[in-house]
Amino acid sequence: MERGEAGSPPVAEEKAGEGEDDFGYRLFPDRNKKPQSFLVRNLLTFHNKCQLMLRMTLDTNPYAQLLLEAMKQSGCTVFNDRHFSCENCDGCVSGGFDAATSQIVLCQNNIHQQSHMNRVVTHELIHAFDHCRAHVDWFKNVKHLACSEIRAANLSGDCTLMNEIARFKFGLKGHHQTCVRDRAIRSILAVRKVSKETAEKAVDEVFDACFNDLEPFGRIPHSKTDAKRAFRDFQNRARYNANL
After folding, report:
1. Are 51 and 86 a contacting pair, CB within 8 Å?
2. Among 19, 173, 195, 219, which is 20 to 30 Å from 79 by CA?
3. Catalytic residues
């Protein structure tokens, strides 16, 4: 289970002594419960709101639209009812990608604004895109996880200037790269029982290659305007390749 946006992860020293790694599933308790009926789910306010915000994201957000199109062209068509699940989660997480089921989990108790939903869906769709296009060993290879977390933080809008200001984090030269590195490390620590040093080493070893892997956007989309341009460029690229 890969983490989306979260608060401070558990302390690495505490995690290391907890025994066998649960791959972050403890943060998503509904994963192990029997699914509720359609009627019960839709009587829950959080679930209804989550579904409505998800639909708005998939229909209107250029980040999500580009990723959905890219996955479709890679042979991994995403279906709303099959590949997204609104669930209650631990208070520190907003979403995750469950590689075992190829499903994106959206934390209906922690996502309350459309802008937040947009960012979480984009972040997790980047993990899903990586899962589709590459043989990612999510559970045993921490470098693979680090690479996808770097890409998700870099391309999803997690580290935009406005988001960093909202976190009271300011910087000048290289601040975007610092934000991406820090958030990738935090994500690894939240879902893997490894030391901070191990997470930092994995991120540092793959950082340059993964930070510069901008697929399918072709650029770092710092705003919705950038994302719209990237989506348009991707559509044009797809049309060109179809005519070859």
Report:
1. yes
2. 219
3. 124
